[in-house]
Sequence to fold (215 residues):
Amino acid sequence: MTRFRTVLFDLDGTLIDHFAAIHRSYAHTLPQLGLPAPTLEQVRAAVGGGLENAMRNFVPESRLAEALNIYRPFWEVHMLEDVEPLPGAVELLCALHTRGIVCAVLTNKHGPSSRAICDHLHLTPYLSAIIGATDTPWLKPQPEFTRYALERLHAEASTTLLVGDSPFDVQAAQAAGLPCWAVTTGTHNAEELRAARADKVFASLGEMATDLGVG
Fold:
C-alpha cells in the first residue's frame, strides 16, 4: 500500500487529454491577429505554465491582451469538446479514493474551467479540491501555490505526492519539498522528465497505479 496520504494531480496531459480543444482555440485566435495558426505539436510544447505564458510563445507582449480577449470567449464555448480522461485516470482516482487517500487537482489551467471539465468527465467525486489559475495569486512552480493546496487539504508535505507531466510539475514539487512522479502522456518525454529530476517516470497512469500499490 502506498505511503502517501495525499496525491496532487496536474490536469492536462496527466489526467485528461484536452489538446485538441486547446489547439482549436489557438487556431481560432492567431489568424485574427494576422499570425499563422500553430500546429498541434507547437501548442503541446507551449502549454503548462498557464495561458498567458503559453500565449507569449505565439504573440508579442504588446498583443497579449488582444489575443487573450479573442481566445477566452471562444474557449468558454468550446472547452468541453474533444476532452476525455487519459487511460487509467478514472480507475486510479477511484482506487485511491476508495482507500481513503486524498486526491486533488493542482493545475495552471484556469480554475473555473478545470472544475467544469472535471464535472463533465465525472472526476469531481474523487477529488477533494480542484485548484487552478486565478484561484490564487500563484502558479506552478511557485512554492506558495503548492503550499496553499497542502493547507487547504490539511496535508503534510512528507506524505504528499505530486503527479504531473512537465518540468513545471517537477519544479513545483521540489520547491515545496514533495516527490514528483511524472507520466509521458502529456508534453514531455521520459528523457526530458528525468533531466528535470522527476523522482519516477511512467508511461501511463496504469503503470503508476501498480507502483502505488493500487493497480
Summary: The beta strands are 6-9, 16-17, 84-85, 102-110, 129-133, 160-164, 180-183, 200-202. The radius of gyration is 17 Å. The first strand starts at residue 6 and ends at 9. DSSP finds ten helices and eight strands in the chain.
